[in-house]
Design goal:
Layout: E1 4-10, H1 26-41, H2 46-53, E2 55-66, E3 75-85, E4 89-98, E5 101-114, H3 125-133
Antiparallel strand pairs: 1-3, 2-5, 3-4, 4-5
Length: 134
């Protein structure tokens, strides 16, 4: 299992406010993309999970410290590091960097949900085992 995962992204105009600084909510998008790519790296297809197993993931909590801003054309590295697997939740430490300068420090808790009722559902044991020991 990849407990720490990272992706590199470029900051585009669409990510910024009128001053060319990344709009604060867009950091959440960057972090979401990193977690999604982490799942993809593990061989987990979220569309298949939803269609075949009737489960999906949703952010239950996020706490973000905005240390420094990213700006237009920055190349940023976004990380997701598995901190804890619970019965129905996954906790990540997430960071965003520009070269060796940390811009964001965050914690994200993601819940496993039943795709039909949107109520919490235990993470299936086969996924849990793969993530714990893979």
């Amino acid at each position: 299992m990849t407990k720490k995962f990272q992706i590199v992204q470029r900051v585009y105009w669409e990510d910024t406010d009128a001053g060319g600084v990344v709009y604060y909510a867009n950091y959440l998008k960057f972090m979401e993309r990193c977690r999604t790519e982490w799942l993809r790296e593990l061989g987990v297809n979220q569309r298949q999970l939803r269609l075949e197993r009737r489960l999906q993931f949703a952010v239950a909590n996020v706490a973000v410290d905005f240390l420094l801003p990213a700006v237009l054309d920055d190349e940023i590295t976004v990380t997701a590091e598995l901190q804890r697997l619970g019965g129905a939740t996954i906790e990540f430490k997430q960071t965003i960097w520009r070269a060796d300068v940390q811009l964001i420090d965050a914690g994200t808790r993601v819940a496993c949900l039943d795709a039909d009722s949107l109520k919490p559902r235990a993470i299936p044991k086969d996924l849990f085992t793969e993530w714990r020991h893979g």
